[in-house]
Amino acid sequence: MAERDTPPRLLVVSNRLPFVLSRTADGGLVSRPGSGGLVTALLPVLRDRGGVWIGWPGIADHDPDVDTALEAATAKAGYQLAPVALGVDEVAGFYYGFSNEVLWPLFHDLQSLCNFDPAYWRSYCEANHKYAQVVQAHARADDFVWVHDYQLLLLASELRRAGSRARLGFFLHIPFPPLDIYLKLPWRFTLLRALLDFDLIGFQTLRDQRNFLQCVRTLLPAARVMQRGRRVRSDGREVRVGSFPIGIDTGAFKRQASSPAVIAAAEALRAELPNRELILGVDRLDYTKGIPLRLEAFRTALRRHPDLQEQVTLIQVVVPSRDDIPQYRDLKTRIEQLVGEINGEFTRPGGWVPIHYVYRALDRLDLVAYYRAAHIALVTPLKDGMNLVAKEFCACSVDGDGVLILSEFAGAAAQLQHGALLVNPHDVEATADAIHQACTLPQSERRRRMAALRRSVRRQDVFRWVNDFLEAAIARDLGAFPLPEDYRPNAEAEQAYWDTDLA
């Protein structure tokens, strides 16, 4: 009876808890809140409705100190934090193995980098089972369980097998691959059926949604896709499917970009590089971000357009990530080699250095200062679920004259196509010409484009994303939500480029 009187809660399940645990010098544990749009958006909902956030605390194996740290963090947070205990071997096989050596490259169309080790799959299944046990221990009958991302594709299946009748939603933050790539996955049927055990499946873009539905139609012929792809009937139950592009906390970025501290830091950056167009790249160390190709495009721009020399500076920030993995160490070496080559070719003694390379994590103030100082953002991933750097740059361009160069293969391209200069990052020469175009755009055109970008980012912020997903999951029909805009390459624009080049 008491449970019936309690309002429905939200249970958020993600690979990690929304805070970072770390050891002090004396061996103790301290926690600090996590950053990022997901945490920012969901914390108010959890506080208002009551709820639980379930995830791995970052410390392998069960550690009694973790429980103490979680109790203190829970008291501050206003909602419950529930840890999933994973051993060292489980983390290696589930997270570093299957999640990041199978699903991550495959879903980013880089199947040649996959390691289809059956031991990884077994670890993935065992870890998803552990997450399900923690969910079962905390879920009430009327709770809504919102599961996040590719590490937990099996969670609904595990919960249904255990008899759970909870309402289950899933959001995939990374792309969903097309059929011909998904087919490479040895466990393709199991994962697809497991996803259909959720009640609502959300994707970043229409393209991801269509890729998923194509896989369902082809691999699960008994399943019926209905209502123009909004529902799938399978094994006697219906699953809702939709596209919900994630946003950022636009207001928070705008306020911080307008703060005296950021203005001063941005002015200092520009003073160090006077009379230069500052081009900014900000990326985690990851092969999906296309950093080597971006550097090649910048070098090509300096060669094809000598008027850019001594007039532009590229600030490339690379945030360390998984640099204990050989592929990532090799990537870091390649980036540093290219930076050295380009600076060696173009640097002028006592003056201009074309690339300033920053290899470290930035705190929020420094990051926003870089956004504010930059005239151009160069965001050119080979594949990205959304890419929030593009949106953060727009939110921080409070002066209204920044230029965004954006990869067609970022999920954000659909929303930002009317203001950004879109490029195919594999086309080094076209990307080089886009850099030149960005540097030579008239101010009126810059301001027109940035105004359109800022409107889009403001209209579809992270709070709208949370609200739309929860309303679709709990209250409203998917047909009530307008379909997000799709992106298709412009053949006329491409022909114009080639005609100009040949002339």
CATH class category of the largest domain: Alpha Beta
The biggest sheet, with number of strands, parallel, antiparallel or mixed sense and barrel status, is: 9 strands, mixed
Total domain count: 2
CATH topology of the largest domain: Rossmann fold
- Approximate strand percentage: 15-25%
Task: Report what the structure shows.
The chain is α/β, with parallel strands linked by helices. Helices cover 48% and strands 17% of the residues. It has helices at 2-5, 37-49, 64-77, 88-107, 118-138, 155-161, 179-182, 188-195, 206-219, 250-257, 260-272, 291-304, 326-346, 364-373, 388-396, 413-416, 428-440, 443-459, 462-474, 491-502; strands spanning 10-16, 19-23, 29-33, 51-56, 80-83, 144-148, 167-171, 200-203, 224-226, 231-234, 237-243, 277-284, 312-319, 355-359, 376-379, 403-407, 421-423. The strands form three sheets. Strands 5-4-1-6-7-8-11-10-9 form a nine-stranded mixed beta sheet, with helices on both faces.
